[in-house]
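Quarterly update, task 2.4: magnesium ion-bound model.
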Amino acid sequence: MASVSKRYPVRARDFLHAGEASIQIQAFLKAMGLDAGLIRRIAICSYEAEMNAVIHGGDGELEMTLADEWVTLEVRDAGPGIADIELAMQPGYSTADETAREMGFGAGMGLPNMKANADELRLESAPGRGTRALMVFRREAAGGGAP
Ligand SMILES: Nc1ncnc2c1ncn2[C@@H]1O[C@H](COP(=O)(O)OP(=O)(O)OP(=O)(O)O)[C@@H](O)[C@H]1O
Ligand SMILES: [Mg+2]
C-alpha cells in the first residue's frame, strides 16, 4: 500500500456538524486496524484542530493521509489567522467567545493537547491568511513492533 487520503470539509461556526470529520477519520483508522492508542491520539488531535477551525477559524478542510509508516493530519482554514503563534500555544490562552464558552470550549488547551499527542506539530498562520495545522504520527511508535 502506498498511501490513502481522506478529505472532509470543515465549516466555520457550524456547531451542528462540528466534529463529524474527526469521527469519520477515527472510524476509518479503526477499520484499517491501527493500534487503539495511536487512533486515540490521532482522534484527539483531529478533534481539537477541527473545533479550532469551527470556533476561531473559517471554512476549510481536514485531510488525513494514511501511509505504511505515518499518518498525517492537515487542517486548513481560511479564517482570520493567528497573530502570535507562541502565545496561542500557551496552555490556558484563549480568545473563545461567549457562545463557544457556553458549549464548554475555551480552556485554551486544544493546541497544547495537539502538541502533546502528535509526534510532530507544525502550525502555520498569519493575520488575514488563515491557519494550517500539520500533524505527523509515527505508526510504529504505538504499534508494539512488527509481528
Ligand atoms: N484555526 C484558528 N484560527 C484562528 N485562531 C486560532 C485557531 N486555532 C487556534 N486559534 C487561537 O489560539 C487560541 C488557543 O487555541 P486552543 O485550541 O489552545 O484553545 P481554545 O480553542 O481557545 O480552547 P479549547 O481548545 O481548550 O476549547 C484560540 O483561543 C485562538 O485565539
Ligand atoms: Mg481549541
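Highlight for this quarter: Residues 3-138 form a domain with the Heat Shock Protein 90 fold (CATH 3.30.565.10).
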